[in-house]
Design brief:
The protein is mainly α. The chain has one domain. Helices cover about 75% and strands about 0% of the residues. The protein is built from 8 helices and no strands. Helix 2 runs parallel beside helix 7 and helix 3 packs antiparallel against helix 4. It is globular and about 45 Å long. The protein starts with a helix and ends in a 6-residue tail after the last helix. Keywords: Membrane, Transmembrane, Transmembrane helix. This is YitT family protein. InterPro entries: YczE/YyaS-like.
Amino acid sequence: MKSVYIRAFSYIFGLMIVSFGVTLTILAGLGAGAWDALNVGLSHMTPFSVGNWVIFVGIILIIINSLLTKSKPVFVSLITILILGYFIDFWLLIVFPDTLVNGFFYQMATLLVGVVVLACGASMYMQAKFALIPIDGLMFALRDVLGVKIMVAKTISEVTALAAAFFVGGPIGIGTLIVTFAIGPLIQWFYPRFEKRLNWKAV
């Protein structure tokens, strides 16, 4: 029973940390990750918030993943995107409304902290092994359908999101490159450390 609580904590708290990391990369103003840039761009074009678009895009990806894999939609992933979307809006609209980081040094510092926090949260939420973010689901779906390595599938996914973000005027810049290339190695570093500390199978 104790393991269930640890998994739930890892899942919810991890997603909260992910949302905070995403928020910092957006507030830095140097360019967000490809999918986040897409959501920000869409929010500027519509009356919907960034968090709303996290949910909308997530639903679309759940459907696309289902079509690609010819399987039933993973509706449990709705829980993940709902939590993530609402947390992102909490940080952006309530905690940091109209916040703008000025000065390249502070912008870069905010961005780098955001990337580390994002990777930390992702490593934690994945420990629960509950419901993946649909973006990660797309990566695995592309891997299986195209028969390519996971990094190739991830690259295809990111490039697609980047093209869409560019089309809708999302924030693309040096920060986008940093997020894209740093997030994987950071998760790889954090994951085994959280796995050891949150060893819910052993409790």
